[in-house]
Amino acid sequence: MTASSLRQVTIVGLGLIGGSIAKALRARDPDLILLAVDREDVGKRSDVQALISRFIDVNRVTESKTLVAKSDLVVLCQPVRIIAETVAQYLSPGCVVTDTGSTKRHIVDRARASTDDSWFVPGHPMAGKEVGGFENSGENLFTNRPWIVCPEGRHPSAVALVEAFVDAMGARRITMTPAQHDSAVALTSHAPQILASFLQIAGKGMNALDAAGPAFADMTRIAGGSEGIWRDIFETNADEIGKTLRDAALALGTFSDALLANPPRVERILQVLEQARASKRSDGAGED
C-alpha cells in the first residue's frame, strides 16, 4: 500500500499540526477527500473558517462513524490525553489510524482497549512553532524534519500506509519503539522545554534580559508553551523526563563544584565543550 492509494483521509484536530498535514496533503493531491473533526471553537472566526474551507472538504464538530470508516487513514492530532482517551473508538480491522502525540507509551497502552489495535501505528512529527492554530500551519512544516514511527507489532499493511504517508509529508522517517521514543524525546524536547523556561524566568528575575545576546535568545526560544499540552506531556512521560533532569542536575552539580573550587577547576568543563563541538561537527553542523 502506498500514499498514492489514499483517497480519503480524516484529520482529528485542526491545529498547527493537523492543519499542516491537511495543507501538505492538499498540495500533493488536489483530488484527495479530506475530512476534519475538531472542537466547536476551531474556525469560529470567519477568516479562519474561510481558510480551512480552502483545504478541507468536510469539517465537522462531531465525528461521523460512517464517514471515518470510509477513510483510508485517520490521523489523530490532539493533545496526548485526548488521543489516549479516544484512540480506541477509531480502531477496527482494516481502518488504519496514526497519531502525532508527543508521548507514545501512554497512548499505546490505551489503544490496547480496542478489539484490534494492530491497525494503529503510533507516530510523532518532530516539528512545530512557538504559535499554534490552523492559521499558523504550513504545508512545508515537516519538510526534512524527523517523524518518529513505532511499527512494532502493527499490521504490515497499516505500517506500509503510514510510512508512505510520512514520506509524502517530506519528513525523515525514524523507527523506534514507544519506550525508545519517550526516552529520546525526554532528552531532546521535554527537558529542554523546562530548562528554557527556567532560564527565561531566572533572567527576568535577575534583571539580566537587557544584557542577553543571541545565545540566550536561542536557548529560551521555546520557553513557555501551552499549559494543557505540556501538562499531558509531563504527566505521561514523567519518569523519563525526571531521569533526564536528574542526570543533568548531577552533571551540573559537578561543574558547579569545579567552578566554585579555589582555584577553579575548568579543565573538565572545557573537555565537555570540546566533546560537544566534535559531536556537532560529526552531525554536519558548523560552528556559530
Protein model, in words:
The chain has 288 residues and is an alpha/beta fold. It has eleven helices and nine strands. The strands form two sheets. The protein has a six-stranded parallel sheet, sandwiched between helices. It is elongated and about 70 Å long.
* Straight-line distance between termini: 44 Å
The total count of strands amounts to: 9
The CATH topology label of the largest domain is Rossmann fold
Oligomer: single chain
SS-based class: alpha/beta
Question: What would a concise description of this structure say?
Answer:
By secondary structure, the chain is α/β, with parallel strands linked by helices. It folds into 2 domains: 3-176, 3-Layer(aba) Sandwich (Rossmann fold), CATH 3.40.50.720; 181-282, 6-phosphogluconate dehydrogenase C-terminal like domain (6-phosphogluconate dehydrogenase C-terminal fold, Orthogonal Bundle). It has helices at residues 16-28, 46-53, 65-69, 80-90, 105-111, 156-168, 178-205, 214-219, 227-236, 238-260, 267-282, and strands at residues 8-12, 33-37, 58-60, 73-76, 96-99, 120-121, 123-125, 146-149, 172-175.
Summarize the helices and strands and which ones pair or pack.
Elements: E1 8-12, H1 16-28, E2 33-37, H2 46-53, E3 58-60, H3 65-69, E4 73-76, H4 80-90, E5 96-99, H5 105-111, E6 120-121, E7 123-125, E8 146-149, H6 156-168, E9 172-175, H7 178-205, H8 214-219, H9 227-236, H10 238-260, H11 267-282
Parallel strand pairs: 1-2, 1-4, 2-3, 4-5, 5-6, 8-9
Antiparallel strand pairs: 7-8
